[in-house]
Structure prediction request, 742 residues.
Amino acid sequence: MLRCLLVAALAAPPPASVGSPAAPATTPVSAGNADTPVVSTTGPAPATQPAATPTATTTSLAPTATSTSTAPAAPAPVVAPAAAGPVAQGRLELVSTRPEGGPVSVRTRSGESVASVQLQPGSRMQLDLPPGEYFIDDTTRGGRITLSVEPGRTARFELTEAGARGSAGEGPAPVRESPAAPKPPRWKQVVSPTLSAVLPGLGQMINGQPGKGVGILFGTVALAVGAAVLRGASGRTDVSGRGLGSDSFGTEVISAAGYGLLSGGLQMLYAAQIMEAHATAAGMRAPQPHTRHRVAFEVTRMATVGLRAGDPAAGFFPDWNMSVLGQVARRLSVGVADMSIKQGHGFQRTTLQGGVRLHYRFYDRGRVWLGAAAGVILQGSFGRTDPPRLAAGSPLPGSDGSFAAIPYGQLDARFFILHRWSLNLTPRISAPLAGPRFYNGSDDRAVARNAITLELGTGVGVYF
Amino acid sequence: MRASRASRPSRPIRSILALAGAVALAGCVFGFRGEAEVEATYPLTDIDAVQIDLGATPLTILGDEMAVGLELAGAWRSIGGSSKVAREQALGPEIVWDTDLRVGRLLAVVPLKLQGQVDFEADEIRLPPDHDLVLETTLGDVYVFAMDGNISVDVGVGHVEIDGGAGGIAVRTGEGDLEIRSPGNLDVSTGRGNALVSQSGPGGNDLVVYAKGGSIEVVLRSDADLDLRLAGREIRVHTGTISTVTSRRFNREVGGASVKVWADAPQGDVLVRLVDAP
Prediction:
């Protein structure tokens, strides 16, 4: 059956409407038999747009088509009544939200042209069609959408700025796929970070970034060597002499601070390169941090350079701890924090530590979060300090104890490399009350009661 | 002149500067130091041996015939969040004199709540020279002079210098140099450091020296009846009866071989010479 159809571009006003954009204009195009598609449009009717004049196309689908163009003042589309026929009709709606509009052609699966229209920005057009699958081509950009038109339903084709989209009866496969990068193999997402954990930089090499991997490896070695040198720079026989007092304080502070910075940097680099190896293997370019997470786990090394009573006169005081915070309201978290167990004084003293923290995140754009928190650390220590007496049969000395409450306030900056993992930098101010605060280390590292302490925390966080 | 608004840093830059300032300031403790002097004399009646363990402090022990007992001078040093707290903490720990049978022990006892915040530093300890000594310190140099009894020293990190110890000397230090002059038998070792041991008096006393990470020099009063067992990278022996330069290992017996001169320096050199030799 030979059918022909001439369809005009619908957003453009017909010549009769020139100079009167507000006036609706309707132009019947052609009429056909019972299989006739019925066309109607609505949209802005530019007053003078020679290029927008209707585009005529001859189709093999003969029947009747009606083209209608309306001005913006008439929001509802005008739908020409479908011709009565033995088969119930479906409807195909063509819409353009693309600023420049564009030509669209509709074809049957067999390739017969049904309609060819020039969609104007904001215009809308409806075709009543026999049920079946149709190819709708975005002629300007070469995209093709396959839509299934079903009886009594409306399939929708839309020209957007990003391309062509279809819905309600969309066909199984668009002809042309968007050019996307090949998905990286899944095994790398596990192997790369694992290898980076074993040897820093190795995961990056596996990911095809040998330069970055070598750089990370050398950076890690340099930080580790530097930290080791500074750790051994002061102390030992340098401070074993009598009468040093605090004369060596300056150099010991510099050594301890340098060690703290280098070891903290090493810790952050190590964690970052593991995360980065996974991110690269997963093809993740910009992580989307979970601002609506329920629970956050953090492992942190708080550190400071503290006074010592003897020699060396200053030392590096680390405090490794873990925190679990629940987000109870948007940006507001509360939970237990600073939990740890420490052994000191030659493993004769045990310290249990924990606390509560209230945290508010005041900035969370992109991959950076900034926040502030307040809390208190509770620390209890116990052990035996008195040595056994020489006399035979003397009773064993009793145990001794100490308690401290350490209120604090802190800021924190979090940098996300993965969606759920962050590197954390946390400056904190605190002061132990009621007793001393003990730190990690086999030798005695304690901040005395009432001593104002500035610490810098480095660590990682994970969010669920 | 009106300040230009454009000269002020933008809000993000101000935030970054504030954060950088916080980071730069982070990592220090504000505190005060305190001190409390200690002077005491402990009776040594019926005491033959004295143990001294005053924590991590250098020790200087002098044998003094005029001493009426164990005379101690030193000071407790402390830290605190305020000057008042620092003073209080310096007065918190105590020195304990504990005796049983013929042994006396001098101990520094620090309550748990003061651990890490006080440290005793002994200036000088005097006692009659005929007592045996047992010294312990985790960090600190040890000097012992004019003591005639047996001397035992155990040091974590610190140099050890002893002149005396006719009753015999046993020394171990984890890191530090040894300089020992004694008429008694010696058994000394250092983990990292050099050892210089000399026979004093008539000589003929045994010398057993081990320096894991350093060199050894042995100075003999006499080379008669030696039992030489030497090990090291380079070994030099210059005595009247033996003169050699070798490496790794050297064993030699002279006369009755009744005087042990055993020196082992796995990573260092060994030199054995007579006292008058260069």
Q: What stands out?
A: Chain A has three domains: 15-167, 187-285, 287-383+399-464.
